[in-house]
Amino acid sequence: MLVLNRTMNSALINEHFFNPKNVGNIAEAQAVARAGSLTCGATLRVSLSVDESQRITDAKFKSAGCSYLVAASSFLTEQIKGKTTAEAAVLGQSPKKSVIEQAGGWPEDRDRCAALACEALISAVKQYSDSVREEWTGDEALICTCFGVSERTIENEIKAARLHTIAEVTKACNAGAGCRSCYSLIQDILDDCSLEASEARTFGLRPEARNT
Ligand code: FES
Question: Domain range spanning residue 80?
Answer without folding.
Answer: 6-130
